Amino acid sequence: MSPQPTGGPQDPTPTTDFLTSAQVAGRLKVSRSTVLRLATAGRFPGAIWTGIGQIRRRGLRIPETAVTAYIAASLIPSTEESR
C-alpha cells in the first residue's frame, strides 16, 4: 500500500470567485466609480485592492458572495410581504 500524503490541509476550504470592479458595475448597472466608492465605504466585505501605490491603486477584486449579499440587502420587499 502506498503511504497517504501528509502536510496538506485535511479540510480544504472552497475557493471564492472574485469579480472585477467592471464586472460588478455591470451586474449592478452602475458606473465603475460607484463600485469603487461602495468598496471604499466597506459595502463589499472581503474586497481586495490589488497593485501598489498610495495614490492610485491598480485594481479591485470583490467576492461574488459580497455582491450577491449587497443586492439582496438592497431589494425593497413587496407590499404584500410587509403586511
Task: Summarize the structure in words.
The chain has 83 residues and is an alpha+beta fold. Helices cover 34% and strands 13% of the residues. The chain contains three helices and three strands. It has a three-stranded antiparallel β-sheet. A hairpin with an 8-residue loop joins strand 2 (48-50) and strand 3 (59-63). Helix 1 crosses helix 2.
Oligomerization status of the protein chains: single chain
Please compute the radius of gyration using only Cα atoms.
19 Å
The sequence of SSEs as H and E is EHHEEH
Terminal Cα separation, in Å? 65 Å
- Poorly predicted runs of 5 or more residues: none
Assign a percent range to the helix content: 25-40%
DSSP summary, beta strand count: 3
